[in-house]
Amino acid sequence: MTGLGLPHGRDSSTGSAVAQRASEGLKAVLAGLGLPERAYRSVRPALTSAGRPYVYVGLLDAGDVEAITTSLRRQLDQGAEDRPGAEARGSSRCHRGG
Prior knowledge:
single chain; 98 residues; 3 helices; disordered N terminus; two-stranded antiparallel sheet; globular; 2 strands; mainly alpha
């Protein structure tokens, strides 16, 4: 990855735009959660040498990640409450790993 979001490879202008939109969207969501700017300062667009778009997140403060996961859990729980029959199905959370 370039890490700088510089165009490389085939069709990189599209990949660059996708990576830029995605990184800006993530920053906006994190800001909307009330996290300080330092929590998403390292988020930036990145492209592979083939032009595949990615978002570089970098290192995040553990406390900020806890705030993000708490907010996401609340949203999942709220979404489960809003869906018909959610109580009968149980939790909608997706558990990964051990």
